[in-house]
Write a structure and sequence with these properties.
354 residues, alpha+beta, BirA Bifunctional Protein, domain 2, 12 helices, 9 strands, elongated, binds 3,4-dihydroxyphenylalanine
């Protein structure tokens, strides 16, 4: 075999080597005591005098080439072995591309709304999902007999609460007010913030809330709210209207209209439900707005003096507004989603659209 043929053979063989065993085989066959290089060297004495030097040099070059090929392959194999100790597999195969994810539509809407209020000077605060009955209800001026305190409307924690749920209605009234529960709204963070800070303050609170509702296209036992409130001397209802108008127009566009409908919440007085003109039919009436032309987006009002009393604020000196909105509802309107369950099923065909 001439040197050129051997070179081609080496080049093709080395490519297929992917284990230390095969590499050792290769080394022995070419560089071993009876290997090809040794055979070639053995031929030198039988060559005519004038050809010996050149041939010897060619064999030497070939030997060096083989040595460096082996060294290179050795490194490659060791690197591969570090990744997979048991089997090398096909280390020439392309890697697995990691798909990049993105923010969940609910997270995006929360971020967007918090940013809007942040620009108006509100800071973002979070509170725990497990709350005391006091913060969730009593501190917010929600009386003991209020239906939302019923075990069928709030997830109370602990076995005793489950037993209470099985009894007759008249026995279901809690005897104590210090049970723990999964917060049913983000409003209890009002109590936490006001107890730990003095006015002036302006805060928004995003977070999860829980209610034992039967799940359907518009109900989920867990959903998200944003609570907002501002307290200082001389805070007026017009401040509430101004802040909410900036919010609604930033999220739904400059052309939408807002209306405040009188309503009742125990923790605000006066209270209102706030609607925007339907973003689908522009107020003419369609199936999304139930032919009304208006969409309810949040509840709001002036903080009740009793709430101030509970947190130790001087209700003669301070006034404040508060509002609470459901994130899923805003996201559904904004993106035209007709089933709340889609947010929580983790179906990538849905999530990839945002
Ligand atoms: N907490 C109320 C709810 O979950 C929403 C709400 C209404 C919050 C009026 C407020 C408010 O702060 O002023 O239904």
């Amino acid at each position: 075999m001439d040197i050129e043929t051997i070179k081609t053979q080496i080049d093709s063989e080395i490519q297929n080597i992917n284990s230390p065993e095969k590499l050792e085989d290769f080394r022995v066959r070419f560089l071993g005591r009876k290997g090809i290089i040794a055979q070639l060297t053995g031929r030198i004495p039988s060559l005519p005098q004038q050809e010996r030097a050149e041939f010897g040099q060619q064999v030497n070059t070939l030997k060096n080439k083989i040595l460096s090929l082996i060294e290179e392959k050795q490194k490659f194999i060791t690197a591969g072995l570090i990744q997979s100790k048991t089997s090398l597999g096909d280390i020439s195969m392309p890697g697995i591309v990691q798909e990049l994810g993105h923010l969940h539509p609910i997270t995006r809407v929360i971020d967007e709304i918090c940013t809007i209020f942040n620009r108006m000077g509100f800071s973002v605060v979070e509170g725990p999902e497990i709350e005391t009955e006091y913060n969730n209800f009593t501190g917010l001026n929600i009386p003991l007999e209020h239906p939302s305190r019923d075990v069928f409307d709030t997830f109370y924690l602990g076995a005793r609460c489950a037993v209470l749920g099985a009894r007759k209605t008249e026995n279901r009234k809690p005897k104590t007010e210090n049970r723990l529960l999964l917060r049913s709204h983000t409003s209890p963070v009002q109590i936490r913030v006001m107890k730990s800070r003095k006015p002036p303050l302006a805060v928004v609170v995003p977070g999860r809330v829980y209610r034992p509702d039967a799940v359907d296209a518009s109900h989920s036992f867990m959903f998200h709210q944003i609570e907002g409130f501002m307290v200082d001397e001389n805070i007026r209802f017009s401040d509430l209207k101004g802040a909410l108008e900036v919010f609604a127009k930033s999220v739904f566009g400059k052309d939408i209209k807002m209306r405040f409908r009188p309503h009742f919440f125990p923790f605000t007085e006066p209270s209102a439900e706030v609607d925007i003109s339907c973003i689908i039919c522009k107020g003419k009436g369609c199936s999304v707005c139930g032919r009304k032309g208006w969409l309810e987006i949040l509840g709001a009002g002036m903080i009740h003096p009793n709430v101030f009393k509970h947190v130790g604020y001087d209700a003669e000196k301070y006034t404040g507004f508060a509002f609470g909105l459901g994130i899923e509802r805003i996201a559904m309107l904004k993106y035209g989603i007709d089933d709340i369950r889609l947010f929580f099923e983790n179906d990538l065909r849905f999530l990839r659209q945002f």
